[in-house]
């Protein structure tokens, strides 16, 4: 069956990440939850096809939303995988390499609050996020909470690429809400942000290979 895509790329990624996690927990948890499994599967279908029947009925088309930001990049660094993973797992470290972030406050083992640097004239912007996947030395995934002003999701994977070398792959997305708030947030989600994050991620190679990171993780 052919579906007309009416969901943005960013929203699709967020939906796929969250629904995959919910589907996994509903099927493998101590208490199986068939209802949650079905609803999660439907959400996964929504994300994989890019089609939302509710959007279709309301004549909403977010497939080509210019305010969405999506980053996908891969780098290889001269640093052991466990060192690189340990740095990323401490989310409070991210502002040191992601210049658009002001700070990340840790709430508990899985939850955090992200604060970003906004353009002049725009109120401070922050949202709460949760870790959706954490595989030691292999993968970290996170997603903003449902009531967040900005939908943010990301996955970073770590793979050995030789002796003391690590391949790091990053997927990260931002999506503004609809309405007047969305218009304000769109000032933050401009094309320059995407370029900035790409540059920051590339510059991480210099940072991770420095002696300072090795000292921090020692």
Layout of strands and helices, then pairs:
Elements: H1 9-28, H2 34-49, H3 53-57, E1 69-77, H4 81-89, E2 101-106, E3 111-116, E4 125-135, E5 139-144, E6 151-160, E7 166-175, H5 179-188, H6 191-208, H7 211-217
Antiparallel strand pairs: 1-7, 2-3, 3-4, 4-5, 5-6, 6-7
Helix pairs in contact: 1-2
- Give the overall average pLDDT: 78
Query: Which CATH-level-2 architecture of the largest domain?
Result: 2-Layer Sandwich
Oligomer: single chain
Number of beta strands: 7
The CATH superfamily of the largest domain is known as START domain
CATH class call of the largest domain: Alpha Beta
Biggest beta-sheet profile: 7 strands, antiparallel
**Largest beta sheet: what is the strand line-up?**
1-7-6-5-4-3-2
- What is the rounded Rg? 18 Å
Distance between the termini: 54 Å
Helix fraction? Answer: 25-40%
Structural class based on helices, strands and sheet pairing: alpha+beta
| Percent in strands | 25-35%
Query: How many separate structural domains?
Result: 2
User: What are the segments in which pLDDT stays under 50 over at least 5 consecutive residues?
Assistant: none
Order of helices and strands: HHHEHEEEEEEHHH
General form: globular
Q: Which fold does the CATH topology of the largest domain refer to?
A: Alpha-D-Glucose-1,6-Bisphosphate, Chain A, domain 4
Number of helices: 7
């Amino acid at each position: 069956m052919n579906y007309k895509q009416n969901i943005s790329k960013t929203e699709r990624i967020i939906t796929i990440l969250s629904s995959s996690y919910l589907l996994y927990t509903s099927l493998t948890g101590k208490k199986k939850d068939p209802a949650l499994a079905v609803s999660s599967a439907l959400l996964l279908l929504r994300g994989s096809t890019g089609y939302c029947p509710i959007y279709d009925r309301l004549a909403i088309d977010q497939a080509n939303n210019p305010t969405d930001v999506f980053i996908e990049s891969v780098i290889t660094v001269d640093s052991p995988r466990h060192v690189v993973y340990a740095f990323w797992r401490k989310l409070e470290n991210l502002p040191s390499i992601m210049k658009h972030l002001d700070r990340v406050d840790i709430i508990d083992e899985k939850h955090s609050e992200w604060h970003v640097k906004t353009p002049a004239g725009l109120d401070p912007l922050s949202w709460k996020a949760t870790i959706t996947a954490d595989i030691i030395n292999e993968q970290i995934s996170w997603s903003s909470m449902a009531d967040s002003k900005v939908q943010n999701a990301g996955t970073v994977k770590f793979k050995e690429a030789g002796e003391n070398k690590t391949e790091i792959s990053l997927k990260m997305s931002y999506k503004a809400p609809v309405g007047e708030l969305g218009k304000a947030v769109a000032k933050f989600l401009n094309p320059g942000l995407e370029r900035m994050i790409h540059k920051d991620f590339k510059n991480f190679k210099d940072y991770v290979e420095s002696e300072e990171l090795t000292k921090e993780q020692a």
